[in-house]
Design brief:
304 residues, mainly alpha, DNA polymerase, domain 1
């Protein structure tokens, strides 16, 4: 049976039977198509591949190069894929069984300095509708630490400006209250045009659709913002701000958490704001702070 058909059946299974989110299904699909392309170059199908083929695929990812966290995700995808093939009797053995997962804890999250964040947030031209929208998205992302999927799926009804919080829907459709500061509130109020008779930038983006849209952040024609489009926006703003490292929405999430902890926030509160199910996921930021303290000590202590 062809690899593409096996992948399609697996994606249908996790969407219909497992009821995973659309974003998760798309992520599985991207990983599996990359694996399928690798096998195709070897004239193999997924049900023909063995343990050595999977190991060589992971080695190719290392050389790409992908970081250990991304490779661990690919391996997790393959494990789920082959478990299902084994249950369906398509394969007689699981080639991913007992393969070691990369030690992702060694990869410390990168983050921006406060000065770099200030430059990034100043990059959009907020006098234009799109710039006002882009600026509001960046402000909100840094103020709340939302995942990009949570950001683009926000609805107008999820935001409570007067109370200073929003309702985010995270992984597994779990909802949480996330506070936001006055700067983000002000940016959102300007984007929504709460003090403007004409309705503000968001209304201007919605002019071609009088019925409006339930989504907070929209493109022209009332289309909701997509994750891919926002990646392009943050990359463009980063270039305008003169930030050399590769910018992603997750980098602002890392910056949010790191800056909070640097200023004395407790780990449990940061865990709740980030929506981490397990505090061990949040604890990686303490490694960042330890590394930073060591650097400060080396730079400033007279006997370092």
């Amino acid at each position: 049976m062809g690899t593409q058909r096996l992948i399609a059946e697996f994606l249908n299974y996790i969407q219909v039977e497992k009821r995973l989110s659309r974003n998760t299904v798309q992520a599985y699909g991207r990983d599996l198509r990359r694996y399928g392309d690798f096998l195709a170059r070897r004239d193999l199908t997924a049900n023909q591949a063995g343990r050595t083929d999977v190991q060589e695929y992971l080695g190719a990812l290392y050389r790409a190069p992908l970081d250990s966290r991304s490779i661990a995700r690919h391996l997790s995808t393959l494990r789920g894929f082959y478990r299902q093939l084994l249950r369906d009797g398509v394969v007689s053995a699981d080639p991913t069984l007992n393969l070691d997962s990369p030690k992702t804890w060694k990869t410390l999250p990168k983050y921006l300095t406060v000065e770099e964040v200030d430059r990034l947030l100043a990059a959009p031209d907020r006098s234009q509708p799109r710039g006002a929208r882009d600026g509001a998205m960046l402000d909100l992302l840094y103020a709340t630490g939302l995942r990009v999927s949570e950001l683009v799926c926000l609805r107008v009804s999820d935001v409570h400006l007067d109370a200073g919080y929003l309702l985010a829907t995270g992984k597994g459709n779990k909802q949480r209250l996330v506070p936001m500061g006055k700067a983000a509130q002000s940016s959102l109020a300007a984007y929504l045009g709460l003090s403007s008779p004409g309705g503000g930038p968001r209304a201007q983006l919605l002019r071609s659709r009088p019925a409006g849209s339930p989504y907070l952040f929209v493109a022209r024609g009332a289309r909701p913002m997509t994750r891919q489009r926002f990646w392009q926006i943050i990359s463009a703003c980063g270039r305008r701000a003169g930030i050399r490292q590769r910018l992603t929405p997750h980098l602002l999430r890392h910056s949010f958490a790191t800056h909070l902890l640097e200023r004395g926030a407790d780990l449990r509160s940061v865990q709740q704001m980030l929506g981490h199910a397990d505090i061990s996921t949040t604890q990686i930021y303490t490694h960042v702070l330890t590394e930073r303290l060591q650097q400060i000590y080396q730079q400033h202590h007279p006997r370092a």
